[in-house]
Design brief:
Layout lengths: L1 H22 L23 E18 L8 E18 L2 E20 L4 E19 L4 E18 L3 E19 L4 E18 L7 E17 L1
Antiparallel strand pairs: 1-2, 1-8, 2-3, 3-4, 4-5, 5-6, 6-7, 7-8
Amino acid sequence: MKRILSGGIALAFAAAAPALAADLPRAAPPVVKAPVMAPLAAYDWTGFYVGVNGGFGWGRSNFDGIAGTPDHFNTSGWLAGATAGYNLQYGHAVFGLEGDIDKSNINGSASCVGGLATCSVQNNWLGTARGRFGFAFDRFLPFVTGGLAVGDINANAPGFGSASTTNAGWTAGGGLEVALGQNWTAKAEYLHVDLGSLNCGSACTGTPSNVDFTTNLVRGGLNFKF
């Protein structure tokens, strides 16, 4: 009798097992997470750099006090040279100091002294020492700049006289610099330069005169950052 009872209970459990198993909650499939990509670090503009620059200049000059001379005449020419500087970055703000020295061939001329001579002015070299302020967008740095400009002014009126001087003036402008890699950057900039005037006295044309020199520069540059 016990055997028959035990067999019946076992048979009942065997019949109910599939139904009980169906009612049990199933385990959720494992969650596979995509690998997390670390964000690229923003470019760090802090550091010393050296480089080269070159471009074109155009402006106007004036021989005043000379009868028969145009009030102003155009000047233009190329320039090229070397650059050095330092940047310090705080957040997105970038503060810098930059200096450059260029060989220049910016010149112009006009008929003067009632057509008896051709007055000319030439700038042979030009240097600047400027502060810079930029706002970095990772590898792009738009900036404004301004400071000291130094260069020569050479005035000449063949048959009458000539004079030259080295003047300190001012410059201001702006531009965009782009990081090409970890160490290389390229820039394009505009600068307005005012070197003031050369007081010829009576040396240039026999009458007291001043010769002023202003120019606009568009330059490109390539820098190596340490």
